[in-house]
Amino acid sequence: MPPTPTTATGGAVAPAAADHTASRFVNHRRFVRANPHTDRFRALAFHHVELWCADAASAAGRFSFALGAPLGARSDFSTGNSAHASLLLRSGSLAFLFTAPYAHGADAATASLPSFSADAARRFAAEHGLAVRAVALRVADAEDAFRASVAAGARPAFEPVELGLGFRLAEVELYGDVVLRYVSYRDATDAPFLPGFEDVSSPGALDYGLRRFDHIVGNVPELAPVAAYVAGFTGFHEFAEFTAEDVGTAESGLNSVVLANNSETVLLPLNEPVHGTKRRSQIQTYLDHHGGPGVQHIALASDDVLRTLREMRARSAMGGFEFLAPPPSNYYDGVKRRAGDVLSEAQIKECQELGVLVDRDDQGLLLQIFTKPVGDRPTLFLEIIQRIGCMEKDEKGQDYQKGGCGGFGKGNFSELFKSIEEYEKSLEAKQAAVVQQS
What share of the chain is helix, strand, coil (3-state, %, to 5)? Predict the structure, then answer.
């Protein structure tokens, strides 16, 4: 496990990182939002998220069924890859890649992902279970992004390579065993996912309305040095800050900062645990069971979250994903006051029936709900969201929605934490009962 990143390659702290480390995080009420446009390279959007696992077919199959994201591409024995099985799920621009190593002694030269290591993948899966290995960004030029990042203090993970068909790939360390992967390629309507992958047609596949990655959240033991490291080598600015005063409960809490690129299409929140509370912070629970820093949850944006949830909940009992307990009914009295001018009474009623949380900032509305952990451990989970409002026009006159519209659910954190606390308490009660019976 790499140490918590605090210094540049060679031990010197990057200048931007040093300034950031000196800052103190403030609660959300005192945070002043600003976009200084300080990116060190052009980051366009999330490209994909790769999860390393022991069995790619099983993991991909469950996610596909639960999310309505059909198989879109593959690289495995059927394509001549005897190093690893990699299955890609797509829904809109959402791209989940599941990768598992083949047997010891497999031909590494056939790997479609040049940064893949079978030994590292086995250690990763044993240490973390089903977990995110790579957060991939589409950038203007992967080599330029890599060089700029390393010059600004990023620790290199994989040197830039040409993949063919105009594709380039490079990686730097993000936090824990997670890498930030840079992918660049020429615009083309027929561009593959990556060279070495074979497109898969899925006629008649289900579509639950999920369209893109909204944000990807990391949990770390100490927030300031990691935020300094990531902001330092990317140039990303602070989009929002939250402290335990904003988002804690009477029993536990966290501190959080959200980093964003210039266009605010790439949002990377980071969380740290708050200690000394009645219960151990959920962030610490994650760190203990994951085995260190890693991706805590992935937020998936829907164009109609109520429809998406109807589809997902219909499959929860058949191998899909389960959701955290809904808030108490009186929570929705506040929703009527906060969002009654945007949501109809029927929509608010359906939010209540489905357990959707509703929050609002000065710019827009946020609808959100969280799954229970998607694997064996109380670690990785998903957030399903819809943002309403904040529409603007780009230089071509096309409508687009500002990134982070409606915020990050500050008003819902306490309800989320209570749900997680109740979920943890139920597990603890079951464990205690088993101990008593033994």
Answer: 30, 30, 40
Give the three-class secondary structure for 171.
Answer: strand
- How many Cβ atoms from other residues are within 10 Å of residue 279's Cβ? 16
Q: CA-CA distance, 290 to 293, in Å (whole number)?
A: 7
Residues 26-85: tens digit of each pLDDT: 655 666 678 999 999 999 999 999 999 999 999 999 999 999 999 999 999 999 999 999
Q: Is the distance from CB of 72 to CB of 49 less than 8 angstroms?
A: no
Instruction: Specify whether the CB–CB gap between 180 and 174 falls below 8 A.
Output: yes
Task: Give the Cα separation of 13 and 332 in Å (integer).
Answer: 48
Joined together, the tokens standing for residue 240 give 């929002």
Instruction: Select from 362, 353, 351 the least CA-distant residue to 386.
Output: 351
Tally helices (H) and strands (E) across the chain: 11, 19
3-class secondary structure, 328: coil
**pTM, full prediction:** 0.88
**Distance from first CA to last CA of the chain, Å, rounded?**
35
Contact 348, 334 (CB under 8 A): no
> Which residues have a Cβ under 8 Å from the Cβ of 407 and sit 6 or more positions away?
240, 359, 360, 361, 363, 364, 366
Q: What does the pLDDT read at residue 3?
A: 32
Q: Under 8 Å CB-to-CB from 208, ≥6 apart: which residues?
A: 67, 68, 91, 302, 307, 308, 311, 312
* Cα 146 to Cα 51: distance, rounded to the nearest angstrom: 22
